[in-house]
Structures are given as structure tokens and as C-alpha cells.
């Protein structure tokens, strides 16, 4: 799902971390090996697949690259055998997840812009790229998607990164540095929100 | 998602009412502001997006029009701040929801017919347009889609409107009056069903 | 969804059995007639629709053939009126379901290969064709998809049949006999797994 200027290794690193989060969700819900592989693949690739279906880029990138399928498989194997150790590394996983979130919102927005969508719709699709895999992971696991209720700043940093990307693109600023900048902003806001416990509001009058 | 002859303001009114129903579902499930916006957008746009993906009209209309994205955002803001007042207006919301149901089944069927699908498949896609957003709203909210079990006449009026639309189109009757007629029939049946408490049957021998 | 060389009657028989399984799920969950028809159609057609969306074959085959829509409707009528009798035939249903699984993984893989996807991605899409309908059925019914946790050999036989199909195709072996062979292998493994109670593993250290 890499946009131009994004080193492929970075893109695959993002895929890997999202896949680990899918695999750990499978452990928590006591799924079997099939469930683990499905959740790892869907968490890592689902957002990009949704975006590609919506902009008409079919087959989606996940179905034309071997790496996109094999990396989540490797992540599944890791979690299958060593999930207690991986769980202990969760703070690091959260850090990498924030990096994946930033990267995917920036590259997802860029791909939509390059397919001719408006800046507003491209921002939407950037957010879909970043959070869509996690939404599908939660739905498959029988849970309300955490992004809808957990009040963490997760979708909002993705929206910030996507908006910066769209504004820069509209101002004719292109290249890897722009993409990296948007990604870093989103990742940074996500990490600050974790650090300081920032929350999104509930509708007026709805108690905690 | 308007077909020819449907005033755009009517189309956006339907979008608005469906978005309000999504926003109210978010309040009931105590989602945060992100969950509310997502449910409002998906409830309003999900049926049309599914239809457009299935007939190959990509990007879907929701990703080429600003109004389709901004109107649910406005509905979210309304529900976020004034949901107790909106809830008190629920009978009116049900009325408008019936109008949206009628409008969307008619225009959804027409769009499928114009893309060359058979009358039977166009009826199917008209129903998908009308009820798809509500199905996605319920699935995202962790609930069985109400249209599958609540025994209200909701999908059946949509099917009636879609069938009338398809028959008229096959008989070379076109134009805004035909679309309006099909929409009014579906809306009327839905309102009669609410008024008289008509129910759909359960499989033989399944108790209440 | 039939590939070349697959008699259409066999294809429709697979659709019918999958639809019966969807209808029976609707009875268990006490859905109404709308829910039953939706679950029957989705279980029978959902896997093929997902595959066709992902390879860009739109409208999906289910939206260009009358039989694909009418057969699940007939299955719904059968289950609606005679579900106690159908439930008693469940061992036979399981047998036919295994046949449908084998047929769909083979023809699904073939269709993806013919659309130019790589063998690995075609195997993935063959498995999606075979199990996708059941996954959507479970999600609509508010349950975690059984294929993710029930430890039965269901996805793995589909993967075996899909892999055999892809290897044969890559080795320039074509025709109905090859498709039939792959289907029979998958069906056979599924039946052996039922007969001998073979199970898929859970992640290391996760208790039963």
C-alpha cells in the first residue's frame, strides 16, 4: 500500500505490527490457528483493501503483492508460538502501532488523491486505510469496534495526518518528505494522547 | 444517490434522516463522538455504497459528492448536542425514515436498471440501497440487524417499491413521476404497517 | 460461479445446500422470514460475491444469473415450512456441505487464476469463495464466525483443494477433470476430518 517515496520495508513493518495486534486479539478470544491467521491478515490488510475497493483499484494491492500476504503469516507464526512474550512487549507494540497508523493514513490519503478523489474524500479514505483493519478485526471477533467507543485518540490522529497530506498535495507539495511529515504528525499526536490520557468526548449528557 | 428527476434536496433529506437514526443508535450504545460520526455516515451512505460497489459504479456516489459526506456530519452535530430533544421527536423521525426508505428503494433500483442489471437483480439492489445502511449500523454496533428479526414490515415495503419501479422501467415508463410513485407506494405501505402493527411471519412452529 | 467444465446443476446444488445451512441458522436464531431469506442468500452467494468484488469481476456472477438468486429463495421456502424435517436430515446436509466446500474452493481458485492473479492469491480467493458465505452468515447472526474458533477442519480442506487447483493450473493442466479432482480432494479431507474428529490447534498454552 506504499505510496511513492515510502520505503517498502517501512510499509511491511506497518503491516507486521498490525498483524501482531490481530494475532493477539485471536489469543485473547481463544480462536484456533485458522482464526489467528484470518485476524492477522484482516487487521493488517483490511483497511487498504476497503480503500482500494472504494477507489476502484482492483485487484487491491494486497492481492498483487506476495509480501502483503506473507508478512502477516509470519506474524501469526510468531504470536502462535510466543504470545506470552509478545504480550509482555505490548508497550512496544503500541508504539509501532502508532507508527503504522501514521504511515497508513498518509499513504492511504495519497493513493486516493492520486486516483482523482477530492481532498475531503481522500481524507476519509486515509482514515479508512488506517483504522479499517482494526474495525474488521473487532467485528470478526464479535466485538463492537473499539474505535467507536473507547474514547482514545486513534481516529483523530489519523484524520490529522490525512488532512495534512491532503492540504500539502493540494498545495502541490509532493514527495517522500511530505508523506513522512504527515505520518510523523499523526504518530506524534497518537503517542501524546497515550502519554497524557487524552480522551474524545461522549454526546452531551451521556454518563461514563 | 438521486436518480434523474429526483430533486437533490429530497435525496439529501433522506440522507439526513438516516444519519439521525445512526446518531441516535450511537447515543443508545454510549459510543463516543467518533462512533457517532461513523454510525451516522454509515447508516446514511452504507446502502448506496454497497449498491455502487456491486454494480461497479466506483468510486461510489458517496465518494464523489461533498453533500453526501457533510449532511451526516451536520446530523451528528445535531444529535451530539440535542439528542434528548431529537429522541422526543422520534415519531417524526420514523415518518421521515419511511420517506427515506421509499426514496432510496426507488432510486437504487433505477440506478441498477440503468447499469444494465436484470429487473430481478435491480429489485435486490434497490432493497440493499434502502436497508443496507441500517444493517451496517446494527452490525457495527454489535447487534443482530433489526431487519432480520424484528418482524416489522421494513424490507417488504422496500421490495414493493423496487418491484413497481422495475416493472415500470421494463414497460418503458420513465421520469420523476414514476420514481416518485414507487417511492410513495413503499413509504405508504411502511406507514400503514406501523399504524396497524402488521408483522412478518416467523418460520412455522417457532414460538414468539 | 461455475468454472468451465463444471456442470451448472452441480454448481446450483452447492448453492442450494449452503442456502439450507443459512436458513437453518435463521431458525436457530428465531429470525423472521426476511432474516431467513437474507441469511440463505448471503450464505450461498456471499463467498462468490466477495471473490468477484476483489478480482474486479463486477457485477458479481450472483447479480447476472437468475438461478443464483432463485435457488436460495427455494431453499428458504423449504426450510420455512419443513425445518424440523430438514434438521433431522442434518447428517446429509453436512455431506452435501462438504461437497459444496470442495466445489467452491476449486472453482473460486480457477476464476481468480483466469483473472490473472498469482497462484498464492488465487488460493486465498478460493478459500474466500468456499468459506466467505458462512462467515457473513455468522456475522449477520451476531456470532463469531465458527470457522475462526471451532477447530474443525473446514478452511484447511478448502485450502488443500485450492492449492491443488493452483498447482495444476500452473503446470498447464486444465479442464473439468482437474477441477473435479481438486474438489474431491477437499471434500474427502473434510469428510475424513468429520469422521475421525480431527482438530486444528489453538495457540500454544491456550487451554480448551
From TrEMBL, chains A, B, C:
Q: Give the GO cellular component terms, alphabetically.
A: plasma membrane
Q: Which InterPro entries match?
A: Gly_transporter
Topology in membrane: Multi-pass membrane protein
Where does the secretion signal sit in this chain? none
Places the protein is found: Cell membrane
User: What's the main place this protein lives?
Assistant: membrane
Superkingdom in the source lineage: Bacteria
- Bilayer-crossing residues are 6-26, 33-50, 62-82, 89-110, 122-140, 152-171, 177-198
Which is a Pfam family this sequence falls into?
Answer: Gly_transporter
Keywords recorded for this protein, A-Z: Cell membrane, Membrane, Transmembrane, Transmembrane helix
Residue runs in coiled coils: none
Q: For the Glycine transporter domain, which residue ranges apply?
A: 9-83, 95-168
- Family, per entry: Belongs to the UPF0126 family.
Q: What is this protein called?
A: Trimeric intracellular cation channel family protein
List the source organism: Actinomadura litoris
Q: What is the lineage of its organism?
A: Bacteria, Bacillati, Actinomycetota, Actinomycetes, Streptosporangiales
